[in-house]
Amino acid sequence: MTNLEKARTSALQQPSHLPRIGFAGVGWIGRHRMQVLVDNGLCNVAAIAEPDDEAAQLAQDLAPDAERSMSFQALMDRDDLDAVVIATPSAAHAEQSIAALNKGLAVFCQKPLGRNAREVEAVVTAAKRADRLLGVDLSYRHTTAMIEVRKMLKSGAAGDVFAVDLVFHNAYGPDKPWFYDKSLSGGGCVIDLGVHLVDLALWALDFPSVTAVESELFAQGARLTDITRIEDFALATIHFGSSGIMRLACSWNLHAGREAEIAARFYGTEGGLAFENVGGSFYDFSATRFSGTTTSALVAPPDDWGGRAVLQWGRELCSSLSYNSEASQCVHVAKVLDAIYASDPTGDIASR
């Protein structure tokens, strides 16, 4: 650890010091995460890197003292930051995260952390080597409904879970062209939407070993045979533990009869538990318990969960810059996504 890094760590241990954070990318997601940290008194917004004038101005309305630059490199050239929040296009996530971590900065990054498991593993390795906090915006973990489902699963309320149904259908598709370029995005609806559900299922079940994956990918209604193209519909079967099975379905632009269908349903020897969106909403979620033919409501909206991932990271950052091993869970999820894209049915894909 350099003297500058030691000084940062020491300063953060003082109650009066708030982390000085640079924000790379301040579109609506980046601005929202900034506002959460500012509103909760968890940071000083020192700098903004954003080439779009309108987005930069909206961010500076939230943080008038922040210095605006045009590039991520300008953030890296500073010597007064403790951390960066990254909300840039997916192709840049791994490279930018590694650059920041190598400079001794903590990182909070939008999902996906990388376009494939190799990139994700490189970021996590950099965080471990630098002993720096790494957070990823897997926001559905922080919904009250999913927290309750996970708590019930851990209590044994469903018995031994042997089947999981995962669904994320979005009646719309992304509005930015880079999403449709695999070299920039890493993939289509699986890495954009499916990542949330795969993460939730593995996290809720304490990351069981994943032993095999089979998948079918589609584009505009036809099976995808060109691996350079982006999928807009995917079906995958994920085998976990000794005999468990998950089924994932996700899509963009599906005629689903509603704006979105989002669900993670867990079936066990003693009952079932479900995390589901309500009324086609992207934001309202419920938790439900199943027993035979009986359904019991556990959690219902409203629930203001959108900024809780960055809030947790910000609170942790205020007490320590040090690495948290939870970040390594992203590698397990990324390996499953790689297997979905490769449909390689062999090998222990995501064991601890």
Notes on the protein architecture:
The structure is a single chain. This protein is α/β, with parallel strands linked by helices. Helix content is 35%, strand content 26%. It is built from 11 helices and 15 strands. The chain has helices spanning 3-12, 28-39, 53-62, 72-76, 90-102, 117-130, 144-155, 182-185, 189-204, 308-319, 329-342; strands spanning 20-24, 44-49, 67-69, 83-86, 106-109, 134-136, 161-170, 210-219, 222-223, 233-240, 244-252, 260-268, 272-277, 285-291, 294-299. The strands form 2 sheets. The chain has a 9-stranded mixed sheet, covered by helices on one side. It has a 6-stranded parallel sheet with strand order 3-2-1-4-5-6, sandwiched between helices. α2 runs parallel beside α3 and α6 (117-130) packs antiparallel against α11 (329-342). The chain is globular. The relative contact order is 0.16.
Relevant terms:
15 strands; Dihydrodipicolinate Reductase, domain 2; alpha/beta; 9-stranded mixed beta sheet; 6-stranded parallel beta sheet; Rossmann fold; 2 domains
Detail the topology: elements first, then pairings:
Layout: H1 3-12, E1 20-24, H2 28-39, E2 44-49, H3 53-62, E3 67-69, H4 72-76, E4 83-86, H5 90-102, E5 106-109, H6 117-130, E6 134-136, H7 144-155, E7 161-170, H8 182-185, H9 189-204, E8 210-219, E9 222-223, E10 233-240, E11 244-252, E12 260-268, E13 272-277, E14 285-291, E15 294-299, H10 308-319, H11 329-342
Parallel strand pairs: 1-2, 1-4, 2-3, 4-5, 5-6, 7-11
Antiparallel strand pairs: 7-12, 8-9, 8-10, 10-11, 12-13, 13-14, 14-15
Helix pairs in contact: 2-3, 5-6, 6-11, 9-11
